[in-house]
Amino acid sequence: MTVTSADVPSERPTVLIADDEAALTDSMAVWLSDHYQVRTAYTGHEALREFDPTVDVVLLDRHMPGLSGERVMEELNETDVTPRVALLTATCADDLGPELEELGFDEHLTKPISRDELLEAVSALVSASSASEPARR
Q1: E strand or H helix at 76, and its extent?
Q2: How far from 31 is each of 15, 25, 26, 105, 113, CA to CA, in Å?
Q3: CB–CB of 111/59 below 8 Å?
Q4: What is the rounded average pLDDT of the residues 6-11?
Q5: For 16-75, how does the pLDDT look when each residue is reduced to its tens digit (9 = 90+)?
Q6: Which H or E run contains 56?
Q7: DSSP characters for 77-92?
């Protein structure tokens, strides 16, 4: 089977990674860069500045200085845009309180995360974003 330019999407999905652990953020950006357009932010304030309607998936650390991931999610919920959002945290999903579920995270990723786990999760979130499923909000 021959792949033509018509078979290849003209624009790759955009993923925003927001985590104050620079080494982890930069590693995840490298892992994703072959398949996605990647933006990085190291604080909650930077995440909000980097976010716009072209972002398909947000990977959001729970604990960042200044503006937490939970607060960033609250701000994202106020927009008309509905990206898929995964919460990045060292906390097991079973230990998260009900208030986090109420914020509308689509996925929970436990750190440390492997390259394969990250690629699989982002792929699923992109697929959900482009599907005709109702938005999470």
Answers
A1: helix 69-77
A2: 12, 10, 9, 22, 11
A3: no
A4: 52
A5: 999 999 999 999 999 999 999 999 999 999 999 999 999 999 999 998 988 999 899 999
A6: strand 55-61
A7: HTSS---EEEEEESS-
